[in-house]
Amino acid sequence: MSAFFPSKFFIDILCTSMETKMQILKHPRTLRSFGRVKARPLTDQQQHLIDHLLPQLRVTPLSDGQWEAWAAPYHAVWLEIGFGGGEHLLSIAQRYPEVLCLGAEPFLNGVAQCLRGIDEAKIPNIALHPHDVHPLLDAMPDSYLNRVDILFPDPWRKRAHYKRRIINPALFARLARIMRPHASLWIATDHRDYAAWITHQCLQQSAFTWVNQEDGATPPSDWHPTRYQMKAEAQGIAPVFFHLTRSST
Length: 249
Description:
By secondary structure, the protein is of the alpha/beta class.
């Protein structure tokens, strides 16, 4: 494993919550990492999109050969895990029409909002998985993804719920299998304790190289702010960004 020496930026984050390291070691399993799948009732328009547009865009598990054929018209395949209302996913898909943009989100209200954006802008290069992402990851072939974004996942603030945090050793192991060499992994959070948790994770990874150890405040160049980021920044909370790449060996 490579030796990592994070900058003062990340060391300060680590020092705020050293107990997270033990919590990581105690909870390596894959558990449900999301809460409710629906908050308020869907409008008639949202339900129509769920019933009629979603089936056309839904990601379904395929055999290895089918996965490759499905992506053949595109130059790359990217995945956003937990796309919320789809603000970032929609922006990325429009900016990179040559990329097949996959989005996983179990919260039905968010899926409906994303579908509305797809329908209004007629975006052709998005496919959605409206469920827990882990079965989707397990179904993908090796070295399939060129980029993965995990933006503002639920921090599960209570200590008893740390085991439900999606950023954990099991997820990194899954991503290591399905991401191509040099593929990018971006993680963002506005919760300082979760940032400490993620920092510990980055320090333990041998399959990934932590790129931005010196600067966790700068988002990717193609960044589109999400509603969660804007809400946090309105409260004076700055997000933390982690950029890793899949190692070549």
